[in-house]
Amino acid sequence: MIRKFVLLFAILVLFAGQALASEAVIEQLRLKVPESQVQIWLEAEQQTWQPWLEQQDGFLGRDIAWDPAHEEGQLLIHWATRDQWKAISSEEVDVVQRQFDSVVNAALGRSVTAESPFPLVLEGELLPLRLPG
Predict the structure, then answer these.
(1) Which terminus of the chain has fewer Cβ atoms in its 10 Å neighbourhood, N or C?
(2) Contacting residues for 110 by C-beta, under 8 A, at least 6 apart
(3) What phi and psi, each to the nearest 5 degrees, are found at residue 124?
(4) How far is CA 41 from its chain centroid?
(5) Series of mean pLDDT values for 10-residue runs along the chain (133 residues)
(6) What is the maximal distance between C-alpha atoms in the chain?
(7) Which long-range contacts (CB under 8 A, 24 or more apart) does 118-121 make?
């Protein structure tokens, strides 16, 4: 009896994992963005990340917001499935991040190889929910 329960539980976990992998997901990023550099941040996003994201399988769009109280930028990147998002290699992301940093640093009159002035504060994953009814 216990074997049957364990087997049934394993099957349910497997299917639940597959269902989560095939459902929409939102990538959440928060960056430290000083008020004086918001426009530079937005222009760098438009020049680097936006065109690259638009070429990625499963990319549905994104929302960009700025929190003046904490001087943080927030990006909510909508993906058709978690699998499509996670299929992107960290090497690909690193290339675009270096391009982004280079654009920002050039706009700030810094060495293009300097670190990004917009450090990552939070990286997360959100599951979209619908209200009942």
Answers:
(1) C
(2) 117
(3) -150, 180
(4) 16
(5) 45 43 90 98 98 98 98 98 98 97 96 91 96 90
(6) 70
(7) 118/31, 118/32, 118/33, 118/37, 118/41, 118/73, 119/31, 119/32, 120/29, 120/30, 120/31, 121/30, 121/31, 121/32, 121/72
**Six token digits for residue 64:** 């960009």
The pLDDT of residue 133: 85
Cβ atoms < 10 Å from Cβ of 40:
19
Long-range contacts of 58-64 (CB under 8 A, 24+ apart): 58/83, 58/84, 58/85, 58/87, 59/84, 60/24
Structure tokens given for 122: 């939070």
> What pTM was computed for the model?
0.81
Tell me how many degrees the CA angle 99-51-76 measures, rounded to the nearest 5. 90
Amino acid at 123: E
